[in-house]
């Protein structure tokens, strides 16, 4: 039984006042705003939960017009007694594409219990500075979210990659993910082909199945690892407004270090597949110093107790860190990277020294398993491509039993056939 008093004070009084004012606005004002902003098209995606922590999580949602948003949540489906509002520096956030709400609780959430929540969005229209109109609030369904438990004895993580807006593949992946029921989902890069002016990043990333009733990250958290196609195009800079990154760092938003049961997960951003000086970037690429900053972060992350002491450690990054003989490492102006030579040089020594067992990657659109060797004791699982025939899921099952921990990683196709598999018993 959780003491009700543990949850009191989770939001400021001002935040509650904003919600109350919005919901209590006179009907005439609501009707006037609704005429300018049709209410039936306000919510444009299912909620997407991201970046879980013991006392917090983020929720993103796409909208079809200028709006604000808040999250109502609690430990009982019928009693969503707490509210978290999207705001920055005292100003409530508003956007006409996507909104992100960080639920920051006063205390760690109870382990093993679902958190019930819904997202409420409300249209906003400006006539001028002192004349603002609010439309009728709309709410999503109530979802039962389970945050990963750092102390769990058993954990399942599923990683997908290179979906490239392929609707048939995405819908089949969704069905497989629901059947597998992971504790955490990794989207390991290349959500799109590119983000040109005509594209809608919020729809591609937050509503990939083009169906608001279909969500793979409303009841479990999603961790996003950037791909090289996700950084291309005029609107690529909007991705951070959809998949809001690590709450502890705006400089390295796609670097995460999470402990889930016996498993430690680290994510890295391999960036583009060509050198910064390549003429196709026209001087807009600065991934080489960015990878160096990540190397410094990684050295610190692997020494955090929750990572250092984990029986099993895996790293997720879009472009592989190891290549096959003769493959391009992406450090020259010729061709493009089959593996990240920049990332390998900067990060692999730290990962090897810290005892990481596996790299999860994609990029090549062809699944494979690179075995460990004496020189390179880290296995590498490379996921498949965007078509249904090539698409794969990488499934990680880790268990801390009474004697020795164990971990199995397998790559399957959309029919569930195991293509590659490896099992660890004990710490290696």
Structure in a nutshell:
Helices cover 18% and strands 29% of the residues. With 428 residues, it is an alpha+beta fold. Helix 6 runs parallel beside helix 8.
Task: Describe the model.
With 428 residues, this protein is of the alpha+beta class. It has helices at residues 13-24, 27-36, 167-180, 201-206, 239-242, 287-301, 305-308, 341-353; strands at 48-53, 56-62, 67-74, 82-85, 87-88, 91-92, 98-104, 115-128, 131-134, 138-139, 143-145, 154-160, 184-187, 222-224, 256-260, 263-267, 312-316, 358-361, 368-370, 379-382, 392-400, 405-413, 418-425. The strands form 5 sheets. Strands 3, 4, 8, 9, 10 and 11 form a 6-stranded antiparallel β-sheet that branches. The chain is globular, with a radius of gyration of 22 Å. The protein starts with 12 loop residues before the first helix and ends with a strand. Residues 1-39 have low confidence and may be disordered. Residues 1-24 form the signal peptide. Keywords: Signal.
């Amino acid at each position: 039984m959780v003491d009700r008093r543990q949850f009191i004070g989770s939001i400021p009084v001002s935040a509650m006042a904003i919600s109350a004012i919005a919901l209590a606005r006179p009907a005439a004002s609501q009707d006037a705003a609704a005429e300018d902003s049709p209410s039936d098209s306000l919510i444009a995606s299912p909620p997407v939960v991201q970046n879980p922590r013991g006392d917090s999580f983020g929720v993103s949602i796409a909208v079809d017009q200028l709006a604000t948003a808040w999250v109502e949540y609690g430990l009982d489906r019928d009693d969503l007694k707490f509210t978290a509002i999207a705001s920055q520096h005292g100003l409530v956030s508003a956007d006409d594409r996507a909104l992100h709400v960080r639920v920051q609780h006063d205390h760690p959430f109870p382990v093993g219990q679902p958190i019930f929540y819904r997202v409420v969005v409300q249209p906003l229209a400006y006539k001028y500075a002192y004349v603002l109109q609010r439309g009728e609030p709309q709410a999503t369904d109530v979802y039962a979210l389970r945050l990963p438990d750092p102390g769990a004895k058993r954990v399942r993580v599923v990683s997908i990659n290179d979906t490239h807006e392929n609707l048939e593949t995405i819908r089949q992946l969704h069905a497989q993910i629901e059947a597998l029921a992971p504790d955490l989902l990794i989207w390991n890069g290349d959500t799109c082909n590119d983000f040109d002016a005509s594209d809608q990043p919020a729809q591609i990333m937050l509503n990939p199945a083009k169906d608001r009733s279909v969500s793979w990250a409303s009841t479990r958290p999603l961790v996003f690892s950037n791909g090289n196609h996700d950084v291309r195009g005029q609107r690529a800079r909007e991705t951070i407004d959809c998949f809001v990154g690590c709450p502890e760092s705006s400089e390295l938003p796609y670097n995460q270090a999470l402990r889930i049961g016996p498993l430690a997960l680290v994510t890295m951003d391999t960036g583009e597949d060509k050198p910064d000086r390549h003429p196709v970037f026209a001087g807009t690429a600065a991934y080489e110093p960015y990878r160096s900053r990540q190397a410094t972060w990684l050295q610190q992350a692997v020494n955090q107790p929750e990572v250092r002491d984990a029986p099993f450690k895996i790293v997720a990054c879009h472009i592989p860190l190891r290549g096959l003989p003769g493959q391009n490492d992406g450090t020259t102006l010729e061709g493009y990277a089959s593996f990240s030579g920049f990332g390998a040089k900067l990060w692999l020594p730290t990962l090897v020294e810290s005892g990481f067992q596996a790299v999860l990657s994609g990029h090549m659109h062809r699944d494979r398993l690179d075995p460990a060797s004496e020189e390179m004791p880290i296995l590498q699982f490379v996921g498949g491509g965007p078509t249904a025939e090539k698409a794969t899921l990488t499934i990680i099952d880790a268990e801390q039993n009474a004697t020795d921990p164990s971990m199995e990683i397998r790559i399957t196709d959309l029919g569930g056939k195991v293509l590659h598999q490896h099992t660890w018993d004990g710490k290696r």
